[in-house]
TrEMBL record:
Listed Gene3D superfamilies: 3.40.50.450
InterPro entries recorded: LOG, LOG_fam
GO-annotated molecular function: hydrolase activity, hydrolyzing N-glycosyl compounds
Protein name stated in the entry: Cytokinin riboside 5'-monophosphate phosphoribohydrolase
Pfam families for this protein: Lysine_decarbox
Keyword Hydrolase tagged: yes
The species this protein was found in: Dorea longicatena
Key words, A-Z: Cytokinin biosynthesis, Hydrolase
Length: 177
């Protein structure tokens, strides 16, 4: 299975994120899955890719040329796909993915996973969309989705396939659905 993971190129200030991202990467690698991610060697992105590779897994990086030019590429990954811009990168990462996980990240992570959420809710994408809700990171987004339902601007049916998981065990259960 190709698992597309969206996450930050920074480490953040919660040391648990680094531990959890390495655990996720080790699980992806040891279970014969392939990581699809943004291609960077820095921050949480680099930690994730490295842990997948160390566990014997494959890693596909999808990176726009301007990030490669800036020196962010992780040379040791299995395959690098170069795109002209961020829009092409997002489309390629969705095309390659069989499942999608948003690890805690910044505005780029949010933009990428909300596009997946939209495609899942429109039934244009039949794949699990998982928000890795470490230490309540995505609680506000979860509340917003509930509020959309309460305001009759969304529905439980439209949000089927969008999951919040607090740990790796719950991610595994979502992927098995």
């Amino acid at each position: 299975m190709n698992i597309t993971v969206y996450l930050g190129a920074n480490e953040g200030n919660d040391p648990f994120f680094k531990e959890a991202v390495r655990e996720l990467g080790a699980w992806i690698g040891t279970n014969g899955n392939t990581l699809v991610y943004g291609g960077s060697k820095s921050g949480l992105m680099g930690e994730l890719a490295e842990s997948v590779l160390q566990a014997g897994g494959k890693v596909i990086g999808v990176e726009p040329q301007f990030f490669i030019d800036a020196g962010f590429v992780y040379d040791e990954i299995t395959k690098l796909i170069t795109t002209k811009d961020m829009s092409e990168r997002k489309a390629k990462m969705i095309e390659l993915g069989d499942a999608f996980i948003a690890f805690p990240g910044g505005t780029g992570t949010l933009e990428e996973i909300t596009e997946v959420m939209s495609k899942v809710s429109l039934k244009h994408l039949d794949a699990p969309c998982i928000l890795y809700n470490l230490n309540g990171y995505y609680d506000s987004l979860k509340q917003l989705l509930e509020h959309m339902i309460e305001m009759d601007l969304s529905s439980r049916e439209k949000q089927e396939g969008i999951y919040f998981a607090e740990n790796l065990e719950k991610i595994q259960k979502c992927l098995a659905k």
